[in-house]
Design goal:
about 750 residues, alpha/beta, Beta-Lactamase, TIM Barrel, 8-stranded mixed barrel, 26 helices, about 50% helix
Length: about 750
């Protein structure tokens, strides 16, 4: 082909000017256009960058007042703060830990003062240390108008908490504040004065008696550095005069009264100029080479071959780069799943020869919180930082790969056994538990690890990955922040769970094997049946009776708990209509509360069935009360619709009086573990705990029920203690509805004699 080109173009060599002139003109025009385009692009890039930095800085300066008010709102709209400031002797340690010094350490506020209802300072903090309240006198003249305005604002709204106009950035709807940028003590400062008001209506507060929280953030000290870090601006500083040096730009800082206090000055980043410095020489060199190559193109075939060879080298380099991207993660530079699979296959082939290897699957804990609170950019930074930490923990011939999201994998080649794996896991936990510095904030995450040893668990790649995922699932299910080795029982457990899930779906469709049983609840006085607790039972056609603790957790994990709970509720509604004088209790799972429109669906089912919601008792655990806002709203909607709320297993977890007050619980059920240990010398505290819970319920007007009553001694003790309702095998086990009918009939016959 090259010979054919040479022979066809050879006549042109007799008149090179005819070739060089047009080629030279075209080359010159191209170079001029390229240079013009380059310089124009550089200037446009610089202008856009400067404009962006100025705009970002102006917005950040404008936002400083709103940020200061938002920080105040965290402690100013708070029941605890109102109560603490009412005490005759102020608890300054509490004020330091929760207000003044806390605001300095958390948000960098320079000065914080608390004023009483007479606008007198009662607490003062400057620079993170409590100081004499007389220090407030230095700034009082500058703040008197703000304090007067904040008091007048309270009068205008009848003493109720309201935000000032333009304060949509506050969240509680109860904050009353006045915030400005002013010149304070000869320095630029953001100042906000906010009333300290109650968060709920449970605490009385006389209008006009609210304490005031005064926060000061100077804008010429640490603020410029913080602003520079936030907006990625180098050399930002504050000056009282607008005297920027060559190449610098400035943004004026104006007070809320229109006075110019000073200027923020910095030397802007000019990406276009940086690019020009990098590519300018190379571009000029390329242009010169083009001229030389064009001049010699006609005269030398060797030059053409050299240029062709150079092109081939570039293509090969591009191909190598593309191949690298095909087998490496773009974000971290670690091997991706494709390269990891290849190296896993190599490890398996070496394991077949007797070499021991290990496969570790890692999944971050609480990583979603980082994305939700700090943003996806912070999440990407965390992933990159974690990749670097993991790579520094393994040997050069081992492999760390990112499989996607927050999931990593590690291949350990030629190890001695589990001891090497244990050492690495310990180092991984230590590395991951160290804080991650992300965009000026610190984030903490954990990690769960699933481990498969090779060749002990086989030599099939797909099967090993599946087993590693199973071990990882058990690590996360066992509380996270731990590691688990794959064991055969795990595989059997996964298969068992899959089988139960499939058969449970079939049972829900047919409705034949799922039955609702009822366990009576009796009154302590006279022991008449006053209520029933609905309990689901699964009579499997081939496996027999399957205990609820075997299939209910699977139903919660797979979402089947929602249709299962709806089915039980419909049975309860029908039973409630049969015995309208009894209340019937039904257990609710935290997973049900997470389903869409849960509260509305419960109310709709009860209305469709024609049952009275006041006769239906919803039993929840503390996990429900610890749920998110949607869960708590659903619970309040159900109670407002007439349902009674019972707190099950009370005393076994983080039982708190705040739950009983905040959610207006109607009943607490003493956990059966305390009842079962009554009379045991090894657990003499159970009796004291039961007495305390019973006294608590009587004091705040709650019904107290004891579960798990099995002996007469337990019954007598509970009745003597004042427990109102009893439930347990001493009275009856959970029975089908037809047997409950017989029990109710015998109970009615026994009541006359019981009264005599």
């Amino acid at each position: 082909m090259l010979r054919q080109v040479y022979s066809t173009t050879r006549p042109g060599w007799r008149s090179p000017t005819r070739i060089l002139l047009p080629v030279g003109l075209v080359t010159l025009v191209a170079i001029v256009l390229a240079a013009f385009s380059l310089f124009w692009a550089v200037r446009q890039s610089n202008d856009v960058s400067v404009e962006r930095q100025i705009r970002t800085t102006e917005r950040s300066i404008q936002a400083v007042v709103s940020e200061l008010a938002q920080q105040q709102e965290m402690v100013a709209v708070w029941d605890d703060a109102v109560e603490k400031l009412r005490e005759p002797q102020l608890d300054f340690d509490w004020l330091d830990a929760n207000m003044g010094i806390w605001l300095h350490r958390t948000f960098g506020q320079d000065q914080v003062y608390i004023l009483n209802e007479r606008n007198e300072p009662v607490d003062a903090m400057i620079g993170g240390e409590r100081v004499p309240v007389s220090e407030f006198g230095l700034i009082r003249p500058s703040l008197n108008s703000f304090i007067r305005d904040i008091r007048q604002t309270a009068d205008e709204h009848g003493g109720h908490g309201h935000e000032r106009a333009g304060s949509s950035y506050l969240t509680t709807g109860k904050a009353v504040h006045d915030a400005h940028v002013i010149q304070l003590l000869g320095r630029p400062a953001a100042v906000s004065v906010m009333k300290i008001v109650r968060e709920s209506d449970d605490i009385p507060q006389e209008p006009g008696t609210e304490p005031l929280l005064v926060s000061v953030r100077f804008l010429d000290d640490t603020f410029p550095k913080q602003l520079a870090e936030r907006n990625l601006i180098e050399g930002l500083h504050f000056s009282s005069s607008n005297l920027p040096r060559p190449g610098e730009v400035s943004v004026p800082l104006k007070s809320d009264y229109g006075d110019t206090i000073g200027y923020f000055i910095w030397k802007p980043e000019l990406p276009g100029s940086k690019i020009l410095k990098v590519i300018g020489p190379s571009t000029a060199l390329v242009c010169a080479l083009m001229i030389v190559v064009m001049g010699w193109l006609v005269r030398s075939l060797r030059s053409s071959m050299a240029r062709l060879e150079s092109t081939v080298v570039e293509l090969r380099a591009s191909e190598a780069h593309a191949q690298h991207l095909a087998f490496h993660d773009v974000l971290t530079g670690l091997p991706n799943r494709a390269l990891f699979d290849d190296r896993l296959d190599r490890a398996l082939s070496r394991s077949a020869g007797g070499e021991k290897s290990a496969l570790l699957m890692l999944d971050l804990d609480r990583f979603k919180n980082v994305n939700d609170t700090l943003g996806h950019q912070a999440g990407d930074n965390l992933i990159r930082e974690l990749a670097g930490r993991l790579s520094g923990l393994v040997r050069t011939h081992d492999t760390v790969a990112r499989l996607g999201g927050d999931e990593f994998a590690i291949l350990l080649f030629d190890i001695g056994g589990r001891t090497d794996v244990e050492v690495l896991c310990s180092r991984i936990f230590d590395a991951v538990h160290q804080p991650f510095d992300l965009l000026g904030s610190q984030a903490f995450v954990g990690v769960s690890i699933g481990i498969v040893m090779m060749p002990d668990e086989g030599v099939d790649r797909i099967d090993l990955l599946r087993k590693a995922d199973i071990a990882l699932y058990h690590a996360k299910n066992d509380g996270r922040g731990c590691h688990r080795y794959f064991e055969l029982c795990m595989d059997e457990d996964v298969k068992r769970r899959a089988t139960i899930e499939e058969e449970l779906r079939e049972a829900l469709e047919t409705g034949d094997s799922l039955k609702v049983h009822y366990q009576p609840q009796v009154a302590a006085a006279g022991r008449p049946v006053i209520g029933l607790e609905a309990l689901i039972r699964w009579q499997h056609p081939t496996r027999g009776l399957i205990a609820p603790d075997q299939f209910l957790p699977i139903a919660e994990d797979t979402g089947l708990i929602v249709p299962l709970g709806d089915m039980v509720l419909r049975h309860v509604c029908a039973t409630s209509k049969r015995w309208p004088n009894l209340f019937i209790a039904i257990n609710l799972s935290p997973a049900q509360f997470r389903s869409n429109g849960f509260a509305e669906r419960i109310v709709k089912i009860v209305r469709e069935c024609g049952a009275d919601p006041r006769k239906i008792e919803l039993e929840v655990t503390e996990n429900v009360l610890l749920g998110d806002k949607l869960t708590r709203d659903a619970l309040r909607k159900l109670r407002s619709s007439g349902f009674r709320i019972a707190l099950d297993d009370f005393g076994s977890g983080h039982s708190s009086l705040s739950y009983l007050r905040r959610y207006e619980v109607d009943k607490i059920k003493i956990d059966r573990s305390f009842v079962q240990h009554l009379g045991h010398t090894a657990d003499a505290d159970s009796a004291a705990i039961i007495k305390a819970i019973t006294t608590l319920g009587q004091t705040i007007g709650l019904t107290v029920t004891a579960e798990g009553v099995e002996t007469e001694d337990q019954r007598r003790f509970l009745e003597t203690t004042g427990c109102m309702e009893l439930q347990g095998h001493l009275f009856a086990k959970a029975l089908p509805e037809d047997r409950i009918a017989g029990l109710m009939a015998s109970d009615m016959r026994a009541r006359p004699s019981a009264r005599t």
